[in-house]
Each structure stands twice: as structure tokens, then as C-alpha cells.
Amino acid sequence: MKKARIGNQTNWTVVILLILGLSTVVFPLYMAVVIAFKQPSEMTNSISGILSLPASFSLSNFSQAMEVTDFWRSLTNSILITVVTVVLSVLIHSLMGYAIGRNRAHSKFYKFVYLFIVSGMFVPFAILMMPLAKQTAEMHLDQL
Q1: Contact, 61 vs 36, CB < 8 A?
Q2: What is the pTM of this model?
Q3: 31-81 pLDDT tens trace
Q4: How far apart are CA 80 and CA 124, in angstroms?
Q5: DSSP secondary-structure letter at 68?
Q6: Is 28 exposed, middle or buried (0-12, 13-18, 19+ CB in 10 A)?
Q7: Among 28, 33, 49, 71, which is disulfide-ready with 66 (CB 3.0 to 4.6 Å)?
Q8: Cβ proximity of 37 and 57 under 8 Å
Q9: What does the alpha-carbon distance between residue 62 and residue 33 come to, in Å, rounded to a whole number?
Q10: How far apart are CA 79 and CA 98, in angstroms?
């Protein structure tokens, strides 16, 4: 039996597109890291000053940003909201899943509820978040 030979050809179009795509991710990431560790005095208007590594790495920018944004209070609020949401979600959804799983074969109502919940998975996340973002802005909860 003769084995089929697989060619070792390189698809240079794909390689070039992947390198361009990689550069659109790596370059901004490099800039964010370099600028985060620079002192404000090291930032200049020249390209070489912006692209160069910092003379001395400093964490003072991070401490200043944490003070200005009240980071620890925001982190505490986020953790509290996340923990409460996860606990309630696991509790409510497990009870609902048990009820639907036990009764779906016997009741059209539970079959409808099951299909309704599953159909919600086909809605893109961005469409679900737009009204929430709008309501958050209207209630002025998006400001510090």
C-alpha cells in the first residue's frame, strides 16, 4: 500500500497575514507596558523617547493610579457583587435545572421553558449588554 505524500509547502500569504495580525496585538501591548513603567519625565514627543525602554522601572504610576481611582474600594465592591451573584446563580439555576430535567418529558410548559432558555444562548452577548450599558449611563452609575 502506497502512502500519500504530504507536501511541505509554506503558504506565505497566510504567514504574512499572521505576522501582521500578531503585530497589531504585540505592539500595543509593548507600548502599554513600557509607558506604564516610565516616569512622566521620560515621556517625550520624539518617537525614540516613546518607544525606548524606561531608564529605571518605577511602580509609582501604579500607586498613583490606585489612589486616583479608589482601586481598593472598587475591587471590594466587585468581589462582593461577584460572590453574591455566583452563589445565587448556582443556587437558583440548579433548582431550575432540576425542575426542568424532571418534568420536561411530562409537561409542555417545562419543554417550552427549556427551549426558551436554550434559545437565549443564540443571542449575541453585545446585544444583551447594550441596554444594560445604556441604563447604567442613565442612572449615572458609570461615573466615579
Answers
A1: yes
A2: 0.55
A3: 888 888 888 777 777 777 778 888 888 888 888 888 888 889 989 999 999
A4: 27
A5: H
A6: exposed
A7: 71
A8: yes
A9: 12
A10: 28
